[in-house]
Amino acid sequence: MTNLSNSDARRIFLAKQGLSAPPNKALTKAGLLExxxxxGFVQVDxxxxxxxxxxxxxxxxxxxxxxxxxxxxxxxxGSLFEHWTHDASILPSAFFRxxxxxxxxxxxxxxxxxxxxxxxxxxxAFEETFERVARDGAIMAREIKADGHVSGGWWNxxxxxxxxxxxxxxxxxxxxxxxxxxxxxxxxxxxxxxxxHEPEVSREEFVDWACSSALTRLGFATHGEIAAFWDxxxxxxxxxWVNAHRDELTEVLIEPALGGKPRASWxxxxxxxxxxxxxxxxxxxxxxxxxxxxxxxxxxxERLFGFFYRIEVFVPEPKREYGYYVFPLxxxxxxxxxxxMKADRKGGxxxxxxxxxxxxxxxxxxxxxxxxxxxxxxxxxxxxxxxVLLDGWYTKS
Length: 397
What we know:
The protein has helices at about 5-15, 30-40, 55-60, 65-75, 95-115, 120-135, 160-170, 190, 205-220, 225-230, 235-245, 300-305, 365-380, and strands at about 1-5, 40-45, 80-85, 90, 140, 175-180, 180-185, 250-255, 265-270, 285, 325-330, 335-345, 350-355, 385-390. By secondary structure, the protein is of the alpha+beta class. Among the domains are: about 95-190, no CATH class; about 285-390, Aminopeptidase (3-Layer(aba) Sandwich). Helix 6 (about 120-135) crosses helix 7 and helix 9 packs across helix 10 (about 225-230).
């Protein structure tokens, strides 16, 4: 068993997550597709405190990212598609044939329950919805909503909305686009090009792909982390895969950031011999989305970076430690703090409410200059004219 230093572990993981490439190198549409393929997925979320999560995730990796390229890949070319990992995400359509196993699992889990969710007549709405989309084409939930229905959360979806989501979750429908972030549904064969539907893969091939592709993107991982990456398998399935592929893997001990017992993990055999191939992360400060895949696994983030992070959107305001939607700050290979900021669209400003640096991080002049340069970049990307530091935005601890 080989020891892997914390600095090497961070360097590998950041490179695997697309955060070590030059952030100002021109990113073409083909390059964007390649970037998403390398990362694996980009989470989608409706909150737009500054910018939508998927746009910010990609901008964090390359400041030349263009939204229209993502739209073209998703809505015109079908090279990307939307579905679920642990949350709604954008994925390469090259993965679509593997997702068919996810669709079958969703059918088993939600099938009969969703069809009979709200009592008599609900199943008829499913048949009606499918027939309408098949006949008339792409549709939004609001276009098929029953008269008099009062919208609410997912628990109060109208029958046709439930049907649309059901057929999407089970692979009959796909997301053809979004309008003001609302999904547009259509038959999957009209959205995902035929080339991505075949060939069919066996369950064994699916499990092998899910585990090997997850470990490739993590660099090193426990069987639980392998299973959690795509959220397609159970930890027991990932453990069985590890045991069956021991001749391709090596066990490594990952040094935690804050000391303590090293974490035993698995890696492919060539990881340790290719350490020199992983570049250092750029030294600039970068604002990450709270939904960035690099910090999705909060426990892994804490072990590797010594950084405790929780999003407090669903925490009652009096109990929040930081704020409703606080952004982590990455500098080089370290998570140095978090920032509370919001776009004032009417005023054209990025309003910075508060900065918290980690206890070991000093507010050196150079660091604050790098932070301000990043805030200027984020403001420009979000279509805002300037950054405004509000009173009390930073108080030295």
